[in-house]
Task: inverse folding
């Protein structure tokens, strides 16, 4: 049967590299590279969470003296804010879903033996890794890491004298981001070429799983956006170090002229946000693809409206380039331009809403299996709705007057981009762990992890909306100076406690992850009874993914519970199925 | 598991919604002419989005419980979707989102599209690390020149702004650390910044605008209630961002005239 | 609480490869001497071309971004606090005539590049003919188009550096005026990208010594050639922008 043939073919399969360095360090195998990205993101997320914990402590206890770290000064707080945001956005949310799972599973899900350019793939990981090292180095140089926020607005970020950390630390921050851009562009190149050129026979674009569509469109967004960020970074480095005045007008710092004149701070904002807005879709699209995938598998039902889902992904990608001005309503930009951007922004809410309706439609009349990946997928839908609902408040300039640069904004983006994307990463981990490591993760630990995370993140981020409505500004290191903020301290304390508990819950995940790699129940090749191509091959997949053969695809990716079929799932490589009614 | 998910999702939804409806932590009292219409639009948005929020979360909770796998009894309705339904909810969503935005656009237009009235009270607001300064044009009605070379924050308001005392239009300018304005008059603020971007935020006036170096941004608002109101900086400007704090005093017209006259007299 | 547990056991993989798996073997058909495990020449060429097209997009975006910064900065008024008035501080830069000579060098190098590309494509086609038994092909005298392109590339880069020296001699350094900043920025970024092209040519040239197959070298040169032409066109655009949008 299939088992025999598979084993017989194994010996003809393309042999992998030997030796530790070629196999695990400078591997050209997209699966190893995917794991490297994943573990890089894992390290980064724990750094990012640690920084946020320190922020939360300082906010509610500004004079506290911490062990090893001493007291946290206002400038240090701002450094924490800056580095938390930067590390999370770049080295976690852009790295794990795309670089991690995309690298591992895109080729397999389209039936390819590897990415189009394996050497480039290997270089893209090590470039990203170098970027992370440079970013961390900013903490340790004279003056420390920068305090200008992950958004790096000029002139604060463009003048070495504007504050502590704005010296070498800020330069390293920019250089790290530039290195990251290059690594991301290399990755995008591979994803796009592979998706367009290496699909197996029968794998038409409209038979690709939505995860692949999401990785593909995300790569296109990256391709177009990271070049602009790189350009902004180059101009900023020039302003900081060569005395140019792209972003810096005639200003004085502490009464001292800086030698710059004529530049425009708004130019930085336009360039940054032209990248920055597509970036948030880069962070969330793979998780949306994952959610679609999992809701279908674990409702035993095709995704509701596959075509509409594809169009929605494309619409989000396209419109994502036309809304950047909604970050700048209060910036001094023309109010007419603001109006135009706000209409476009409401427009981009529509495809997101369509996706949400389709997720609900997938669940309806399904047969839901509450596996750990499914829990996180359901959690994703809830978080996406919550984070999405606060968007239309900020998208209307009249309301943004009150809410801009208050806690309403981090409440919004943490739910819809931060937590939702992280839930996508967790869901993907629990789902694909058996395929990557040949073992199942522990279900009971997974459930504890889910509940800690789901309830915990709501407890942290929902109250931020109330704080924003009440007028609590962002990036304030303490609430002692403005009298009406004193009344909000109890709510901040609640958030801090919730943060501690939620982060503690993440340790359950960490333990589960590593323990299961060695001690988890052994997994079959298709434990979830799913239909896509990764489940047709061995666990873990052989070096060239399919053991010397390429699959032929006859069906779409979501053929579950097809009437008249022998079992409740039809794999993409099974003979073509037509529903019996 | 389906039931627990339903309960938790519904609980989170209702608890969150409760705090919005109860306004436990809410907008400060509105004290400007624009506040009423802005707050009204807040309420409209909250109601519309609140309904969507509750409906979606309730539906999610209900669906995951109702369609849980109950063994062989459960029948799955194989379907790839419903195009008509897609069109309907796409149109409805578009109408809701765009309509809501267009409804607010008239308020935005009246606040931002038109310039201040000719008889507005002019105050120049300058932000610098880490204080706000307020300048009144004095009897000649003109703001005098400032020179960056003359800036000296340690020597008080005029010096902090770098006022050129040799310029006759500068000599009568009044510079204060507190912003005093008369009630029921349109106030024109001219926003400037010396070093980095700051943001002039008065929550009770529903007023916020970034102060950008290299620009002089003209805005206006009309306070309708006397009192003392906090001014905060709402754009990260450095280590002292959290304490870059000012005070707006809205007083009667007579008090304002008296106060201004006294300040102007000091400049003679 | 109903939980799902998989019915698929370890020994029953539940996999299917359709047609029971006898499909296109993973190795491409047609031995072009490129080594085991690689797809055939046509596939590799197509993939490399697609990859280059994709790769050119962010390069384009970089210069689009610089261009928009250029246009914005040129037209931007700034507040002069001394007069409370808005002023524009853009002073046009006189471009050194040397840039026109460099442009000619680059265009000529593009011509040589194209000739090199066709030459090596022919060699790759001949290589597969040569490997057939009983065929002997006489080596024609070959003009080293690739090496000549490489040299012209270096000449261009040297010429750009010399143009920078001229600008400095006229008093225009990087930070002298915003216009001069852009001249250095645009020419410098272009030059860095061209250095990458020069490096690729060097690798392609050395590849024959390293005994890479003609097919592989042909693909490297093909990709480099299109990159080179793109950079020549980009340079022409930059020159026009700096000269006419002053």
Result:
């Amino acid at each position: 049967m299939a088992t025999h043939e598979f084993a017989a073919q194994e010996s003809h399969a393309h042999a992998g590299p030997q030796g530790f360095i070629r196999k695990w360090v400078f591997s050209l195998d997209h699966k190893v590279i995917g794991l490297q990205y994943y573990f890089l993101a894992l390290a980064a997320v724990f750094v990012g969470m640690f920084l946020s914990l320190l922020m939360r402590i300082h906010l509610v206890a500004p004079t506290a003296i911490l062990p090893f770290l001493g007291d946290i000064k206002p400038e240090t707080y701002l450094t924490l804010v800056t580095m938390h945001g930067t590390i999370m956005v770049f080295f976690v949310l852009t790295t794990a879903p795309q670089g991690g799972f995309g690298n591992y599973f895109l080729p397999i899900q389209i039936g390819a033996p590897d990415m189009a350019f394996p050497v480039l793939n290997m270089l893209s990981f090590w470039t990203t890794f170098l970027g992370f090292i440079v970013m961390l180095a900013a903490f340790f140089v004279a003056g420390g890491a920068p305090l200008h926020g992950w958004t790096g607005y000029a002139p604060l970020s463009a003048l070495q004298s504007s504050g502590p950390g704005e010296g070498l630390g800020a330069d390293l921050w920019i250089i790290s981001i530039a290195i990251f851009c290059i690594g991301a562009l290399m990755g995008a190149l591979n994803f796009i070429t592979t998706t367009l050129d290496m699909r197996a026979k029968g794998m038409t674009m409209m038979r690709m799983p939505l995860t692949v569509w999401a990785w593909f469109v995300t790569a296109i967004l990256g391709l177009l956006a990271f070049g602009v960020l790189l350009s902004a970074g180059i101009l900023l480095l020039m302003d900081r170090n060569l005395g140019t005045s792209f972003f810096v007008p005639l200003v004085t710092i502490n009464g001292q002229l800086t030698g710059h004149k004529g530049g425009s701070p708004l130019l930085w904002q336009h360039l940054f946000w032209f990248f920055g807005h597509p970036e948030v879709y880069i962070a969330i699209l793979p998780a949306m693809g994952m959610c679609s995938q999992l809701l279908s598998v674990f409702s035993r039902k095709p995704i509701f409206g596959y075509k509409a889902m594809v169009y929605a992904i494309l619409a989000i990608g396209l419109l994502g380039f036309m809304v950047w001005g909604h970050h700048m309503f209060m910036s001094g930009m023309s109010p007419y331009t603001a109006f135009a951007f706000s209409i476009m922004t409401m427009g981009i809410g529509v495809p997101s809403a369509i996706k949400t309706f389709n997720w609900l439609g997938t669940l309806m009349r399904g047969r839901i299996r509450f596996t750990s990946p499914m829990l996180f997928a359901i959690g994703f839908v809830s978080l996406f709705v919550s984070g999405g609902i606060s968007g239309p408040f900020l998208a209307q300039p009249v309301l943004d007057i009150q809410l801009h640069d208050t806690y309403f904004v981090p409440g919004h983006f943490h739910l819809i981009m931060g937590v939702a994307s992280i839930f996508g990463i967790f869901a993907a981990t629990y789902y694909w762990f058996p395929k990557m490591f040949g073992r199942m993760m522990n279900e009971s630990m997974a459930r504890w992890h889910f509940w800690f995370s789901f309830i915990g993140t709501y407890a942290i981020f929902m109250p931020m909306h109330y704080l924003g409505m009440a007028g609590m500004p962002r990036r304030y290191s303490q609430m002692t100076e403005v009298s009406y903020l004193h009344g909000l301290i109890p709510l901040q304390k609640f958030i801090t406690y919730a943060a501690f508990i939620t982060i503690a819950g993440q340790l359950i995940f960490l333990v589960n992850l590593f323990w299961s790699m060695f001690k988890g129940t052994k997994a079959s090749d298709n434990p979830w009874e799913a239909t896509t191509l990764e489940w047709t091959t061995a666990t873990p997949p052989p070096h060239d993914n399919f053991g010397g053969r390429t699959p032929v695809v006859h069906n779409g990716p979501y053929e579950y519970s097809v009437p008249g079929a022998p079992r409740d799932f039809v794999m993409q490589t099974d003979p073509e199925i037509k529903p019996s009614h | 598991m389906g039931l627990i998910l339903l309960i938790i999702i519904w609980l989170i939804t209702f608890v969150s919604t409760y705090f919005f409806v109860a306004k436990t932590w809410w907008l400060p009292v509105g004290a400007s002419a624009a506040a009423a219409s802005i707050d009204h639009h807040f309420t409209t948005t909250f109601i519309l989005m609140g309904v969507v929020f509750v409906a979606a979360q309730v539906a999610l909770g209900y669906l995951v419980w109702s369609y849980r796998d109950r063994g062989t009894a459960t029948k799955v309705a194989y379907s790839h979707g419903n195009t008509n339904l897609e069109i309907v909810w796409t149109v409805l969503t578009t109408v809701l989102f765009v309509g809501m935005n267009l409804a607010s656009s008239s308020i935005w237009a009246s606040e931002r599209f038109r310039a201040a009235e000719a008889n507005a009270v002019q105050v120049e607001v300058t932000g610098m690390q880490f204080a706000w300064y307020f300048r009144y044009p004095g009897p000649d009605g003109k703001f005098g020149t400032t020179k960056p070379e003359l800036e000296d924050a340690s020597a008080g308001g005029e010096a902090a702004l770098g006022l050129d005392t040799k310029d006759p239009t500068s000599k009568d300018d009044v510079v204060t650390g507190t912003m005093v304005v008369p009630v029921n008059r349109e106030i024109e603020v001219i926003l400037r910044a010396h070093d980095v971007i700051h943001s002039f935020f008065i929550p009770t006036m529903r007023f916020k605008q970034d102060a950008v170096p290299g620009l002089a941004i003209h805005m206006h608002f009309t306070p309708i209630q006397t009192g003392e109101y906090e001014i905060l900086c709402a754009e990260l400007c450095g280590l002292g961002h959290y304490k870059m704090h000012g005070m707006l005093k809205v007083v009667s017209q007579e008090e304002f005239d008296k106060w201004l006259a006294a300040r102007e007299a000091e400049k003679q | 609480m109903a939980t799902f547990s998989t019915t698929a056991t370890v020994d029953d993989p539940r996999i299917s490869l359709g047609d029971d798996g006898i499909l296109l073997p993973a190795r491409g058909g047609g031995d072009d001497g490129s080594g085991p495990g690689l797809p055939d020449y046509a596939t590799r060429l197509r993939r490399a071309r697609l990859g280059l097209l994709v790769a050119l997009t962010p390069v384009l975006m970089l210069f689009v971004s610089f261009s928009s910064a250029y246009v914005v900065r040129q037209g931007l008024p700034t507040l002069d606090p001394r007069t409370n008035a808005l002023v524009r501080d853009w002073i046009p830069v006189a471009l050194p005539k040397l840039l026109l000579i460099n442009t000619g060098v680059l265009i000529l190098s593009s011509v040589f590049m194209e000739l090199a590309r066709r030459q090596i494509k022919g060699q790759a086609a001949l290589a597969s003919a040569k490997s057939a038994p009983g065929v002997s092909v006489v080596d024609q005298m070959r003009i080293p188009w690739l090496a000549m392109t490489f040299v012209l590339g270096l000449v261009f880069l040297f010429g750009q550096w010399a143009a920078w020296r001229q600008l400095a001699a006229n008093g225009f350094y990087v930070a002298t005026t915003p216009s001069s900043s852009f001249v250095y920025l645009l020419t410098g970024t272009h030059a860095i990208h061209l250095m990458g092209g020069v490096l690729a040519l060097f690798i392609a040239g050395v590849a024959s010594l390293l005994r890479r197959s003609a097919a592989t070298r042909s693909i490297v040169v093909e990709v480099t050639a299109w990159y080179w032409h793109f950079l020549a066109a980009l340079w022409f655009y930059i020159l026009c922008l700096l000269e006419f949008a002053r």
Summary: Chain A touches chain B through 117 residues (CB under 8 Å). Chain A has 18 helices and four strands.
